[in-house]
Amino acid sequence: MQTGTVYLVGAGPGDPGLLTLKGKACLEKADIVIYDALANESLLNYLQPQAKRVYVGKKAGQHTMKQDDINALLVESARQYAHVVRLKGGDPFVFGRGGEEALVLAENQIPFEIVPGVTAGIAVPAYSGIPVTHRDTATSVAFVTGHESPDKTEEDAQVDWQRMARSCDTLVIYMGVKNLPYIVQELKTAGLPDDTPVAVICDGTYPAQRTLTGTLQTIASQAQEQNVKPPAMIVVGSVVKLHDSLSWFEQRPLFGQTIVVTRNADADARLTNLLEDQGAQVLHFPTIEIVEGIPNPDMEQAMQQLASYDWLIFTSGNAVRIFFQQLLTDNRDIRALHDLKIAAIGKPTAEQLQTYHLHADFVPDQFTSEQLVAGMLAQRIGTNTRILFPCSNLSNPHIAEQFRQAGATIDVLPVYETRLSTPEAKKVDELKSLIQHGQVSWITFTSSSTVHNFVQLVGQEFLAEYHERIPAASIGPVTTATLEEYGLRPRVTASKHTYQGLVNAMRGDE
Ligand code: SAH
């Protein structure tokens, strides 16, 4: 019988960007993935929708599946599927029992490959600004398990702390949180001075990363006071002192802040990326849903008469995307627009146009609908101008009104609908509880509809009680005015009405 291949893939220590390209390619081809608690679940987004997912993770003291059962599952999966991925936190061969799993596969003549990963023992200290070796002061490093039982007998002793302390400059200890007092004692007995620097880094490479530094003398009680929980990496040696100068990850401007993004993940991927780059933990709470493809007879008519317009106006990237999709569906392309001028409300919308090789003839300096209208009326629009405005069903009605007042003809063409999103009740309750407990640093509002829908989802009653605890960040004056209608005073309003402007405002850079 033919068997599939099992790929033992290292998922890296947590930050999804630390997966290798080869690991990603394996996930993209996988028929089944068998994964652990330490592998970041967001990596499963690389899977094909039909790929099977099996969680076999272990959390301290609580085993979901025994190692023998995992081994058996790997063998069985290889007999059923062509491409089996065993995804393990960090590197599969560093304290990951990857060796045992590979041996079982070899014994059963199942083809396998090892895809090394970025091990927590190197990456977690690095994210804490601690190089595990350093010229002149640390020329050797040992990776050690701290998991062995303190009640070990002489015969089953595994870690020779004495030898380790004598021969290696840096000790990187995995799985050591529970045994920290014991480990400290062993190292002291082995002759390491009390003032030897020690770091304990929890949830390394994640937005929740936390570094505790001290010495062999102090670290155990510090860890107890601070209620340190696994996963955590313990680093012992002089390199720990470099943390003070090299800590970069925890120093990023929005590090440690939980920021709510109120549009869906796709629409706000750019905002999410900007926030994460600055160190924020992003919480997605989509309040609006974009619905496209609703039959619209006006659309057909407008598309047929494109040549009769002078200007096309876009106030969102969605409108650009859906309009050009429709043009292509009608078997036409950008040549149908050769006589039209195009206005875009802001840089992101203009950039979306560029993906269709089109240059916006007008983009206001300030990215608001007022500025768009004012700028066009000032020099570009006459009484006979004909404008086509593909937009959302909720677009700002003032835009069309003002052009009409100036004598222009404007056809408002809703090409998509913005609807209230319907998150699970559990998600709404979770967010409310975070707000109640002051655990949200910012809630970002990027349009008036995000405000209306947010209020509808959390409810007026909640708002009345907790409005002072809602740390709103608004992208511009129109959104701010909408927030104020509900008695919500934003703590910042971006002076540049872009995602970058919003991020700068939250950073306090304006
Ligand atoms: N194969 C993994 C290690 C598995 S052992 C690797 O190569 O990284 C599990 C231990 O790794 C944890 O107890 C903890 O000590 C460490 N660890 C894994 N991920 C970590 C993280 N994100 N932050 C801190 N320590 C981590």
UniProtKB/TrEMBL annotation:
InterPro entries: 4pyrrol_Mease, 4pyrrol_Methylase_sf, 4pyrrol_syn_uPrphyn_synt_sf, 4pyrrol_synth_uPrphyn_synth, 4pyrrole_Mease_sub1, 4pyrrole_Mease_sub2, CobA/CysG_C, Siro_Cobalamin_biosynth. It comes from Vecturithrix granuli. GO terms for biological process: methylation; siroheme biosynthetic process. GO terms for molecular function: uroporphyrin-III C-methyltransferase activity; uroporphyrinogen-III synthase activity. Residues 5-219 form the Tetrapyrrole methylase domain. Its EC number is 2.1.1.107. Belongs to the precorrin methyltransferase family. Pfam families: HEM4 (PF02602), TP_methylase (PF00590). The keyword Protein biosynthesis does not apply. Keywords: Methyltransferase, Porphyrin biosynthesis, S-adenosyl-L-methionine, Transferase. Residues 270-503 form the Tetrapyrrole biosynthesis uroporphyrinogen III synthase domain. SUPFAM superfamilies: HemD-like, Tetrapyrrole methylase. It comes from the Bacteria. It is an enzyme of class 2 (transferase). The keyword Transferase applies. This is uroporphyrinogen-III C-methyltransferase.
